[in-house]
Amino acid sequence: MKERLARLVGEGNVFFDFHSINFGLDFRNVIHEVFSGISIVVLLIGSAFHAERLHRTDDIVGLELREAVTRGTFIMPALVDGAPMPKADAWPPELAEIAYINAAPLHRGREFDRDTERFVRDMALSYASRVGRTRGLNIIRFPDGSTGAV
Questions:
Q1: pTM given for the model
Q2: Pairing of β 74-80 and β 104-106
Q3: Are strands 40-45 and 74-80 parallel, antiparallel or unpaired?
Q4: What Rg value do the Cα atoms of the chain yield, rounded?
Q5: Helix 60-71 × helix 27-34 angle, to 10°
Q6: Contact, 44 vs 78, CB < 8 A?
């Protein structure tokens, strides 16, 4: 997913937590700084994802999501390979609203290209609808000729 997003919106426009934080830096400070310029957070929920871990203050995903919610950043969840969306009561109270976001299905394998194309298209449309504009957003042209904005 990271590579697909980077191809569509540019490598410098994709932040991928552990891979984007240099060794020796306090990830709390980096996330706080980086999230000041982020418009969209992609949340991948796979079979190993447990919302209960987000109750820990040292969990990097929880820190990222809290930062996003605090800043009002658009969160786009994807359910990988049929993973379920955790119920609202599994999330920390300040993140429970994420349980109600309509998450996109994302499958690895033969369906990956189709799913990621639809994911990015819907993400662009939902974000543009949320902010009420497409001006100033990156316009993406998909293989089928349709466009989206991120």
A1: 0.78
A2: parallel
A3: parallel
A4: 15
A5: 30
A6: yes
